[in-house]
Amino acid sequence: MDNNISDAIGVIAQSADTVFILLGAILVLAMHAGFAFLEVGTVRHKNQVNALVKIITDFAFSAVAYFVIGYQIAYGSHFFVSAETLGANHGYELVKFFFLLTFAAAIPAIVSGGIAERGSFKPFLFASALIVAFVYPFFEGIIWNGNFGFQAWLEYTFGAQFHDFAGSVVVHAMGGWLALVAILLLGSRRGRKPGIAFAPSNIPFLALGSWVLIVGWFGFNVMSAQTLDGISGLVAVNSLMAMVGGTIIALIVGKNDPGFIHNGPLAGLVAVCAGSDLMHPVGAFIVGGVAGGLFVVIYTKLQRSSKVDDVLGVWPLHGLCGVWGGIAAGIFGQSAFGGLGGVSFSAQVVGTIAGVIVAIIGGILVYGTINKVSSLRLSQEDEFHGADIAIHKIGSTNSDK
């Protein structure tokens, strides 16, 4: 009788874990719609269709690359076994793959916003597949699966491993610094003059994208526990407070600019990912506020740059705020600052730098190689007409009656 009760409890627990992580996967999948509409609202009208198409096709190519190669590199397991084996434990391992895939596919979605309006379609699709197959899972496995002994070395040297609960560095900094490589390789959009930015084409779409990302982010962070018994309300409230902090500071520093106001919360959420399970909510508010201010200041400076034409500001938003998040976990995660402790500032700095190095080297290898084979940049004529007509043969709206 006791064995039957124990078995029943085990089945229920396994089922609950499967549902838990499935809901997380669905929420993060929805975030890709947020990426799409954030880009649609920011780019000019002649590139809106391309923004939508890139996000969904990047996800499709990423899914194949991660299923066949990437997941095995990161975690040493694959899916080329019987369906019966895959379905064991209510298919938990399959759903875990789905959840982690939505993280991996965020990398191309981040890059997409930086190279918008002048990036070639198919070459970047191929590049996205290579990055999700090789570059991202290489670092993901090092941090989240202990590959190559890097985490063990950090723990031995600094007393703690690199802590990145939900991917400030593993996902966001990786995506932001990969994007910077592509942005520098492509150069500026034709017609863009430093100090004179192209205005967002649709503020309501931009705001919609921001809101979808904000809501989905609670799946991104909270469900990173991956099991129901690991769920923590601290993660949820820390995410909330970082989002709020980013919004308020972006409002103040950005002087009421709606683009900054809707990117501020995203900056805060990027930064809090790493230490959201460790910080006190007040610490999370400060971390988010610093990130919101950092984004506004750096993106404003980039608008005056002739070399860095980052359309959505993905390098400051994901790259720099992700770096800040990795380091901030080593500050506000400390018990002296109200956190739970068990984290090393030195380990956080070293781990963060390692992520940036992997992203830069990986970006140079992938984007540099593909650019030699097939140009990553649209032709001058196609860029002038816009990616919508040049690539997809249709505009975003039709006024025919």
Helix/strand order, N-terminal first: HHHHHHHHHHHHHHHH
Calculate Rg over CA atoms.
21 Å
General shape: globular
How much strand? Answer: under 5%
- Structural category: mainly alpha
The portion of residues assigned to helices is over 70%
Number of strands: 0
In whole angstroms, how far apart are the ends? 72 Å
Count of helical stretches: 16
Report on the biggest sheet: none
Chain-averaged pLDDT: 95
The residue ranges in which pLDDT falls below 50 over 5 or more consecutive positions are: none
Structure description:
By secondary structure, this protein is mainly alpha-helical. 72% of the residues lie in helices and 0% in strands. α5 runs parallel beside α8, α9 packs parallel to α11 and α11 crosses α13. 54% of the residues are buried.
Notable characteristics:
mainly alpha, transmembrane helix, single chain, 401 residues, Ammonium_transpt_CS, 16 helices, 0% strand, Ammonium transporter
Give the helix/strand layout:
Elements: H1 2-42, H2 48-75, H3 83-86, H4 88-104, H5 106-114, H6 121-144, H7 150-158, H8 168-186, H9 203-222, H10 233-253, H11 258-272, H12 281-302, H13 314-332, H14 345-373, H15 380-385, H16 387-392
Helix pairs in contact: 1-2, 1-4, 1-5, 1-9, 2-4, 2-5, 2-6, 5-8, 6-14, 7-14, 8-13, 8-14, 9-10, 9-11, 10-11, 10-12, 11-12, 11-13, 12-13, 13-14
